[in-house]
Each structure stands twice: as structure tokens, then as C-alpha cells.
User: Fold Flagellar protein FlbD from Saliterribacillus persicus.
Amino acid sequence: MITLTRLNNESFTINALYIEQIEALPDTTISLVSKRKVFVKESLEEVKESVTAFYKEIGLNGLIKEIGDHDES
Assistant:
């Protein structure tokens, strides 16, 4: 779980395993596997760092090189 801040300054915790995509549009927009979108104050890089730290904490860091990397073929 990672803690983020909504645009209205409300803190919340989200399960990073359900994040499908992170974009800067210009607000940082997190798309979940449920197709729900969440807008946060943290930068795209800050969210990526939080997710990566969470993955390391639960032992997934060896399975995922970097968030956002995927094979387009």
C-alpha cells in the first residue's frame, strides 16, 4: 500500500498492485485495473518511487524492472 494526496489535499492509501498506468496530464493521473482514475498531487516520478519501494517491500522488485517498462511487440 502507498499513501498519496488527492488534489483537495486529502491523504489516502491505495494498493499499488492495482495500478495499471501513471500519467502526467498535467495532473498526475493514476489508472487502476478497475478503469477508475485517481488524480494526485504527487509527481509521476514520486508515485513511481513509492510504487517501486512498495514492490521491494513485498519482494516483487526482481519481477519488474521499472514501472512503465513493457514490451510493445
In short: The longest helix spans residues 44-58. Strands lie at 2-5, 11-14, 19-24, 28-32, 37-40. Residues 2-58 form one domain.
